[in-house]
Design goal:
This protein is mainly α. The protein contains 4 helices and no strands. The longest helix has 32 residues. It is elongated.
């Protein structure tokens, strides 16, 4: 699970590292680096943003708030809510059998 979450983090690190190049403060080391950076920007911002509504539908499985679900999905994408451990809500109408 940690490996899956490392991929989006590396994507965000790449975006931050590429900002001086995108702003024109430094020349791109290679034309393909510019293409990779723009693809990464699209995937990290647009695609992760589009995954937030899907994550809201999965929120009942995690038990997390809408805010936490939105932020974590925007950062990690679907790897967040696909790898988070489900939390089973206690049903108050059922007797406690944990003893």
């Amino acid at each position: 699970m940690i490996v899956l979450r490392a991929v989006p983090i590396l994507g965000w690190v790449t975006l931050v590292a590429g900002v001086p190049y995108a702003q024109g403060k430094k020349p791109w080391p290679h034309p393909s680096a510019r293409v990779v950076w723009w693809i990464d920007l699209f995937l990290s911002v647009v695609v992760h943003g589009l995954q937030v509504p899907v994550a809201f539908r999965q929120r009942h499985v995690t038990g997390h708030s809408r805010g936490r679900t939105a932020i974590m999905t925007f950062i990690f994408g679907l790897t967040y809510w696909k790898t988070v451990s489900p939390q089973v809500a206690a049903d108050p109408t059922q007797p406690d059998t944990s003893s």
